[in-house]
Specification:
The complex is a heterodimer. By secondary structure, chain A is α+β, with helices and mostly antiparallel strands. Chain A contains 22 helices and 22 strands. Chain A folds into 5 domains: 165 residues, HPT domain (Four Helix Bundle (Hemerythrin (Met), subunit A)); 97 residues, Alpha-Beta Plaits (2-Layer Sandwich), CATH 3.30.70.1110; 60 residues; 179 residues, Histidine kinase-like ATPase, C-terminal domain (Heat Shock Protein 90); 143 residues, Beta Barrel (OB fold (Dihydrolipoamide Acetyltransferase, E2P)). A 6-stranded mixed beta sheet of chain A has the order 14-18-19-17-16-15. Chain A is elongated. Chain B is globular. In chain B, 43% of the residues lie in helices and 20% in strands. Chain B is built from 5 helices and 5 strands. Chain B is of the alpha/beta class. The longest helix of chain B has 13 residues. The chains are: A alpha+beta, B alpha/beta. At the A-B interface, helix 1, helix 2, helix 6 and helix 7 of A face helix 1, helix 4, strand 5 and helix 5 of B.
Chain lengths: 715, 120
């Protein structure tokens, strides 16, 4: 019977990647004598090797075997935990990840790093003498196993059959290990013809019999072309609990000596065993490049389909879904029964039914959303390694603190926030934390601290990246911005406005480019990525104390709480999260600054007014600012008032991408389909503010140019 | 119907073993470590136990020892699923009361052939 297990490859890969993460994080926290941690690292490697062996991913099996052997020595205490070994193991984890990713993506794996690391592992293992004896041991065992297998394979070719005399004297407690002599004899009868003679002379008197003991011994005659090894294999599990005497009597004359097929077959299965090692015993400790290459080529043929990405969901979440669907079905059947012969007397029941439907839908929606939510530790768990590597590279001593790791976040958001976070953490290490000498000179602890924190705030998730370094040098930022022509020399900017300059394209204050960060392509991309997720980033910094980057992200990208507004004949959706308040303008609070620019006095703030109809160049019912409806929104710390004709409903809308279906449109972040089937655009508030500012600046420049010209004429 | 307890901390190995057994017509119950396996064994009867050795919380050797203390598991075959083919590991399994062992990498055909050797 053949069982096809290829369907389990994706889950094996998923589990392996999790295992690698566990190995990595455990290695970073490994301390001398911490047996349970070493054991859990070992276990992860062990599972990967086992699974890879099952699917025939031999390059993974071979490589992981080296890793496992090293870990085994650490676990047994034969090897103390040295930093160099930990680094080597971290490298190895990277290699295993490369190998597994190559399998997942069905591509050939980059070999250089793997060969290099295999060599280092082999050297590390060679240094330990006790390992050598074990290798010899296991090699012997594996060749023995191969022989046994090969002989089974050669049975059909053997020319004569032998008569084997088998004396089987089990110990009394044999059955207490679950072994059953009858089943052993059954297995034996698969090899050939068996005749059995029981010897009951040791059976005690009835009164003395212990029903859990075995007193019988057997004399068996097997007529078979099987080898002694085949027979011994059947008794393998009980060989220490019995006396087993096997002797051969040749019955048919031309039986070849048993050694014949044996020696012939040794070479064959051993060569094969490089391709399909059966366990941790048979591989070559240092695979040569050529061998490895050929193995990988072999592999690429039998790959499964690429991983489409899966989520592991808790049973409770699924149960709650099923429960809710059940309720939905009940509501549906109630409503359809109501619809069968409807009259106005039933209107009350209809309303309550519809209300129930609303409730069901809402709960179902929330439950489905929860399925996509994962704890942010999935995004955080790469940072201990990153900071470890970076602090080694920069020579800075840095401690990383993770907080709020259980905060849940949509899987898509999680995947896309990873890279920006990496950049921010790299920046914190490279530019934030000062070298130890500087820290000591400034009376700070030698060890720098970087804290990653995640928490929910309203309908958003906030991720904070904090360092206790030197803070952002306000003057350096300003000077740089001046040099790049981003600001004017005489412009007065608040601290936060200056710090925001670091998000401008092409901005970098690092005096020298390092390979960690500071290529000057970073922060603006970080900001862009976060904005494309519907989030925003702010920075706070205090000289000598450090900096905090605060990333605000929506919990999900699929659904948005929106305020529907009407402008002319169009309906737009303003994300509810951006709205500060909505109000009716009073004429005495309106300030016309210059030209088109209108400011509205909102308590202590002056808020620029953006008429949506002007920005999008459409017809409006109301173009007057007096007594009009103003929706005050905030983005990037900037408040503006959006002039609208009417406020409609507030509702959750499903976001459809404009990019996928049409193209990117300035000032619009997406679209949705409303209950009546019409399409409404979702406003991109930061984008709109940018648009309006650009327009205002352009108008300002034109005006200044006009002014200059006029002045020139008048003088 | 023959009922088999499958104990392994790796989801994918457990799934594969269970899938193989089910496709051969056996009924399976899965447990994710020795402790889980033991508690499932205390409330169910099984014709066979297949267990990994190295697991968190309770390893396979301890599970085997604990199972042998239960009256209903006194003679139940217990197979250790292990990559550690070293004689030492086999001995530890045997002295804990294991019936035999299956050497990983897990091979479905071999598993089914071996099972025929331990249950009637």
């Amino acid at each position: 019977m053949s069982v096809d297990l290829t369907q389990f490859i994706p889950s094996f890969l998923e589990e392996s990647f999790e295992g690698l993460e566990l190995m990595e994080s455990s290695l970073l926290n490994l301390e001398q004598g911490d047996d349970e941690t070493i054991n859990s690292i070992f276990r992860a490697a062990h599972s990967i090797k086992g699974g890879a062996g099952t699917f025939g991913f031999d390059n993974v099996t071979e490589f992981t075997h080296l890793v496992e052997t090293l870990l085994d020595e650490m676990r047994d205490g034969r090897r103390s935990i040295e930093q160099a070994d930990v680094e080597l193991l971290l490298e190895s984890v990277d290699c295993m990840r490369l190998l597994l990713e190559a399998i997942r993506d069905e591509v050939e794996c980059e070999q250089d790093k793997i060969i290099e690391t295999s060599k280092l592992l082999a050297i590390a293992l060679d240094g330990n003498s006790s390992e050598n004896s074990q290798t010899t041991d296991s090699t012997a065992e594996s060749s023995e196993e191969s022989q046994a297998e090969s002989n089974t394979g050669n049975n059909d070719n053997a020319e004569g059959s032998n008569s084997w005399q088998i004396e089987f004297i089990p110990e009394h407690h044999l059955v207490q290990t679950g072994n059953d002599p009858l089943l052993l004899f059954n297995a034996l009868s698969d090899l050939g013809e068996v005749s059995i003679k029981a010897n009951c002379k040791d059976v005690p008197a009835l009164n003395d019999i212990d029903s859990e003991e075995l007193y019988i011994t057997w004399q068996l005659t097997l007529t078979s072309n099987a080898s002694e090894n085949d027979i011994r294999e059947i008794f393998e599990w009980v060989e220490d609990e019995c006396q087993l005497n096997i002797t051969k009597e040749q019955t048919e004359q031309t039986a070849p000596p048993v050694e014949g097929p044996k020696s012939e077959s040794i070479a064959e299965p051993l060569a094969e065993s490089n391709l399909s090692p059966t366990d941790n015993t048979s591989e070559n400790p240092t695979p040569t490049p050529s061998e490895n290459d050929s193995i990988i080529k072999d592999k690429s043929v039998t790959k499964t389909k690429p991983d489409v990405g899966s989520i592991r969901v808790g049973v409770d979440k699924v149960d709650s879904l099923i429960n809710l669907v059940g309720e939905l079905v009940i509501t549906q059947s109630m409503l359809s029964e109501l619809g069968n012969d409807f009259d106005l007397t039933k209107i009350e029941r209809l309303t309550s039914g519809l209300e129930q439907l609303l409730q069901n839908t809402k709960e179902l929606q929330e439950s489905v959303m929860r399925i996509r939510m994962l704890p942010i530790s999935f995004a955080f768990n790469r940072f201990p390694r990153l900071v470890h590597d970076l602090s080694k590279k920069t020579g800075k001593d840095i401690e990383l603190i993770l907080k709020g790791e259980q905060t849940e976040l949509d899987k898509t958001v999680m995947e896309q926030i990873g890279d920006p976070l990496v950049h921010l953490v790299r920046n914190a290490v490279d530019h934030g934390i000062e070298p130890s000498e500087v820290r000591i000179a400034n009376g700070k602890s030698e060890k720098g601290t970087i804290t990653l924190d995640a928490y929910h705030q309203g309908g958003n998730i906030v991720i904070e990246i904090n360092d206790d370094g030197g803070g952002i040098d306000r003057k350096a930022v300003f000077d740089k911005a001046l040099e790049k022509g981003i600001v004017d020399a005489n412009s007065t900017l608040s601290d936060s406005q200056v710090f925001d300059l670091i998000f401008e394209p092409g901005f970098s204050t690092a005096k020298e480019l390092s390979d960690i960060s500071g290529r000057g392509v970073g922060m603006d991309v970080v900001k862009k990525n976060i904005q494309s997720l519907g989030g925003r980033i702010q920075v706070e910094s205090e000289p000598g104390k450090g900096s905090t980057f605060k990333v605000n992200l929506p919990l999900t990208l699929a659904i948005l709480d929106g305020q529907l507004v009407k402008v002319g004949s169009e309906v737009y959706i303003i994300p509810l999260i951006t709205i500060v308040e909505s109000l009716q303008t009073q004429s005495d609070l309106i300030n016309r600054v210059s030209g088109d620019m209108v400011l509205y006095r909102l308590r202590e703030d002056n808020v620029p007014v953006i008429p949506i109809y002007q920005l999008f160049n459409i017809a409006s019912d109301n173009e007057k600012i007096e007594n009009a409806l103003l929706v005050v929104v905030e983005a990037d710390g900037q408040k503006v008032g959006l002039l609208v004709d009417d406020l409609l409903a507030q509702q959750q809308v499903v976001i459809k991408s404009l990019n996928d279906n049409y193209q990117q449109v300035e000032g619009i972040s997406g679209a949705t389909i409303l209950g009546d089937g019409s399409v409404a655009m979702i406003l991109d508030i930061p984008g709109m503010i940018q648009m309006a500012l650009k327009k205002a600046q352009k108008a300002q420049k034109n005006k200044q140019a006009e002014q200059v010209m006029l002045e020139g004429v008048s003088s | 119907m023959t009922k088999i307890l499958v104990v392994d901390d790796s989801n994918s190995i457990r799934d594969m073993v269970s899938f193989t057994l089910k496709s051969a017509g056996y009924e399976t119950v899965e447990a994710k470590d020795g402790q889980d396996g033991l508690s499932k064994a205390q409330t169910n009867g099984f014709d066979l136990v297949i267990s990994d050795v190295n697991m968190p919380i309770m390893d396979g050797i301890t599970l085997c020892q604990e199972l042998r203390k239960l009256p209903s598991f006194k003679f139940t075959p217990i197979l250790m699923l292990t990559t550690e083919s070293s004689g030492d590991m086999k001995m530890r399994g045997k002295s804990a009361g294991a019936t035999g062992w299956l050497v990983k990498p897990f091979n479905p055909e071999k598993l089914l052939a071996t099972i025929k050797r331990v249950i009637r």
